Amino acid sequence: MTAVLAALRRVLGAPGWVAAVWVASVAIAAGAGAIVHAAVAGAIGMFGPAPDGRLAYGLTDLALDHEAIPSTATATIVMSALLGVVAWSLFAGAVVARLDTPRRDVATTWARTLPAVVVQSLWHLAIRAIVVFAALSTASALPPAAGWPLLWLGWSIGTVGLDLARVRAVRGLDSPYHPRTAGLALLDVVRNPGRFAAAVGLAALGAIVPLVVVYASLAMLGSPVMPTVARALSLGACIVGLWRIALVTDADPPSTAA
Amino acid sequence: MHARMVAALGPAIRCGRAPPGVPKPPMARRNLAAALRRVSAALGLGLALVAAACRPTPEPPPPIDAPTEPLRPADVRGPIPQDARVTDWTIAATLDADAHRIDATATLVWTNRGPTPVSSIPFHLYLNGFRAADTAWMRDGLRAGRTAGLDADHAWGWVEVEEILQTSADGEDPVALEFTERDEPSLMDVPLAGPLEPGHAVTLQLSFSTQLPAVFARTGFAGDFVMVGQWLPKPCVRRSDGTWADDPFTFHSEFFSDFGRWRVTLDVPARHQIGATGVKVDGHVDGDRRVETYVADMVHHFAWASGADLVAWDSEHDGIRIRQLMPPDALGDATLHHEALAATLDSMQARFGPYPWSTITVIHPPPGAEEAGGMEYPTLFTTSRRRSLPMWAQALGFDDRFSGAFVTVHEFGHQYFQGLLASDEYAQPWLDEGMNTTANALAYLDRYADEGDPWIVKVAGQPLHLLDGLRVQQRFADDLQPVDQSAAAYDPTVGGYGPTVYRKTAATMLTLRGLVGAERFDGALRAYAMAWRFRHPTGADLVQALVDGIGERVDVSAPGPDGRVVTLDVRAYLRDTLGRADAIDLDVQALGVRPAVATTGWHRGEDGALRDDGKPDVTPIADRPDDAVEAYAVVHRSGGLSVPVEIEAAFVDGTTDRVTWDAKARHVLLTWPGRRLRRITIDPDGLLLLELRQSNNTAWVPGVEAPEGLDDVAGDVAEAVALGVLAGVGP
Both ends of chain B: CA-CA distance in Å? Predict the structure, then answer.
């Protein structure tokens, strides 16, 4: 527990980094929101919802009347996700360098290890796709009460495996571009559950944040505080995510100096 | 257990750490202890999950004895017109569960209630619609995809008539009749031995066999379960003008028969439980066979189901015995279906008169027989499973009042619309399906009366309401084809049968109810239902009943400033909404504040000289006094149907005004001198359920303070969802 909290203290001790990650997320999401806002505004013109506040029906009516709107919204959110993946892949090395122990020179380390971090991210993506497919096949054969937790756990382990691969890429391991690095990182998480349990737990917590945010957006539909709640949850997710990375750096003893 | 295991492995092993100064146990023992901890944790987690997934199955209550009479007492059910009884059936049927075949003999006494003699009687052979790919039903069914999942080995079903004898009333002097199947095999003609005079009856002895298909459309078998509906030859209805309703069985059409008395003996495997129309009057098990006799009166069909592993759940409501037959794993749904049925019974008895029969049987098809679900027969119907949401989902605001329950509400509703008011489902399917859907909506409004328009689905606590659902379900079919046409006129490739026949009819009736007032409408509909019980009403009969009860023309507004009142022509309304493929669509075309007509400039006075009354007022609208401006709005009707509509204007000073427009012209210009407009809402009370597109019904004057619009809401939701997704793909 002491080590877990120590990792959190390191994250909270880097408020600029927390803010940078969060602001980037908010900026991307705000852009998505602005696009959808403009699309809907253009479609409805001077019309507005009836004063009786039936927002759910109003949105349904709107989507049925203007089929381009759901398509636009979906495409916008997908693009936001892709933008987030690319941005995070590019800057993950810098965050690892900042949170690693001992702390590294961020600019130098990031510039030097950027290609390796990106390549490991791509290898991990391919491996995770295979693992997720296998997990889905297994989960579909099980009752939902067992299948969904299995998927959730598997996804969380995968997230920590990706963190570990990036950490090792930043630390300058042999074969920084080899898929073996990504595969071994995933295997090491599975084989050492005790060392990575806290990180997997945080990954599991982080995995449900998207569901919580989507739920909040529906439950608080039309409420003026809903955007604030969503942004607050996003900030929490950023802190949890960075905390998880800090834990992974602690859990994996450095084998090669940068 | 864990502590004892750890203790058994030695005092040094305690949560994987040895006390200070004590040497650690060997590596193998440490690894074993760790492994045992992991296994016990996994087992505990697994047991917890299994326990969470398992729910105790409720026990059915004690059985309730079947009533002795098929009809409720006369003082409860009301009178029965004797000339409505046309048929009298006595049937003995034996089920071969292995061959999925029924062999039967029947005695039919058919009475000529028509104005002229009858020399030949056409019969329906409905099940022959499933006999081949080129029957009227199958041609459209295959193209509509209704036969997806058809079991190629058991695809076909039919009813084969082997012999028809005409006898005397006591069964003597048999004469073999030469019957002829038509090119469309769902019909046959049976010439009688001689003309049958009006008011006289003929006795026919029939021998027939019924081959059941693997169920894909209401009737058939699935495993050790059979649902047997429309399984026997039935005489067509002879209309009051002497013509026959001898229409083929097509994809969208259902059934049309006369009322009568039925006594049916069923011989099935002893392992089966039987659910049937009417009441059981006799039953015994003889070796490996179960034989039960059922009697039903004043019904137009006898349907039944039987299967192994069916459990009976009996209940009672208002003196009516309700029997639910279901597989054991569906017992958890029984209470939900009973409550839905009881609420619907209360609503429909209050609105449409007493339910006349003494029993209701509800069949829950077992897994594999879902295609038999959702169908009505006299005093028996099949329902569907409820898709239960887990408790945690309900706690998060996900819920519905629809799945399972609505099927029971709808299929029970057919006991009235079609069971009692036995309209021709081929010629005017809207008269039962649409009127039943209307009744279903009224049943929900009655059950949840304190909510106004009740919710039917909740997503994260956000409600979707019943009447909004009715609007949504009419989409894409509102102007595709008229409501009032035969079932055969609806091509499944064109689509629109459900939205038009079911939903648009209900929207038509509920819109009328909103316009003329619930009391007037409900009274007229009740009068129709009471007048046409045990009869074959037509659409014209319903229209006349509504006009008689509501009035030819109804005032739907208060007198306007000019003293005129907007009226609704009820007959024209029904003619247009039921007879035309058209829709209501209204929108706000323009709105705002404009200068009032001024009196400045040069005017000629009474002395004939020009008089200077001042310069034009060029002050901006916003800076003018109220008496120098006027609010205006232009409302446009783009849909073809014109129905009076209320328009609400909201002003900057917080007041509102409502105006009724007859919508006969394509547009109307409304003005409010001395007022500053903020908002216009068309149909503020949502009475026009036939208007599907409401997104253009409310408009705000640009520049005025308006509440958050849909663009703001949609943008916020998109931003929130994007934040959630980014949280998933980010750090």
Answer: 40
Q: Residue count of chain A, please give it.
A: 258
B100: alpha, beta or left? (left if phi > 0; alpha if psi -120 to 50): left
Among residues A73, A217, A212, which one has the least CA distance to residue B462? A217
* Residues in chain B closer than 8 A to A197 (CB atoms): none
Q: Do A44 and B710 touch (CB under 8 A)?
A: yes
What residues 42-71 of chain B have any CB closer than 8 A to a CB of chain A? 46, 49-50, 52-53
Nearest Cα to B471, choosing from B422, B504, B509?
A: B504
DSSP code for B61: P
The span from the CA of B695 to the CA of A59, in Å, is 9
- Report the mean per-residue pLDDT for chain B: 90
Give the residue ranges of DSSP H helices in A171-225: 179-191, 193-219
Distance of CA A153 to the CA centre of its chain: 15
Note whether B84 and B535 are within 8 A (CB). Answer: yes
Distance from the B52 Cα atom to the nearest Cα atom in chain A, whole angstroms = 8
- CA torsion B77-B83-B86-B88 (nearest 10°) is 60
Q: Where are the alpha helices (DSSP H) in B448-504?
A: 466-473, 497
Alpha carbons B520 and B524: distance in angstroms, whole number: 6
Strands B645-651, B656-661: pairing is: antiparallel
Query: In this model, does residue B38 exceed pLDDT 70?
Result: no
Give the pLDDT confidence score for residue B730 in this predicted structure: 79
Q: B730 to chain A: which residues are within 8 Å by CB?
A: 21, 25, 84, 88, 237-238, 241
Per-residue pLDDT of B423-454, as tens digits, reads 999 999 999 999 999 999 999 999 999 998 99
Residue whose pair of structure tokens reads 């146990």 in the numeric block: B25
From B273-287, B330-344, B475-489, B529-543, the region with the lowest mean pLDDT: B475-489
Q: Which of A144-158, B421-435, B562-576 has the highest mean pLDDT?
A: B421-435
Token pair recorded at residue B471: 């609007």
Which DSSP string do the residues of B581-612 spell out, in sequence order? S--B-EEEEEEEEEEPPP--SEEE-TTS-EEE
| Amino acid in the structure at residue A176 | P
Pairing of strands B85-96, B259-269: parallel
Kindly report which listed range (A165-169, B29-33, B602-606) carries the lowest average pLDDT score: B29-33
H or E element, residue B203: strand B201-211
Q: Which of B296, B293, B266 is nearest to B282 (CA)?
A: B293
Residues 6+ apart with CB under 8 A from B656: B648, B649, B650
List the structure tokens of B598. Answer: 């001024």
The percentage of residues in chain A with a pLDDT greater than 90, rounded to a whole number, is 40
Q: Which of A98, A80, A107, A97 is nearest to A168 (CA)?
A: A97
- Helices B334-352 and B518-531, interaxial angle, to 10°? 90
DSSP B126: G
Q: Chain B contacts of A95, Cβ < 8 Å?
A: 731
Backbone φ and ψ of B50, nearest 5°? -65, -40
Assembly ipTM: 0.92
Of B584, B687, B682, B557, nearest in space to B642 by CA: B584
User: What six digits make up the tokens of B179?
Assistant: 């019957």
CB B157 within 8 A of CB B211: yes
pLDDT in tens, B378-395: 999 999 988 778 888 888
Interface check for B712 against chain A (CB to CB < 8 A): the answer is yes
Give the ranges where B188-333 is alpha helix by DSSP (H). Answer: none
Does residue A121 sit at the B interface (CB-CB below 8 Å)? no
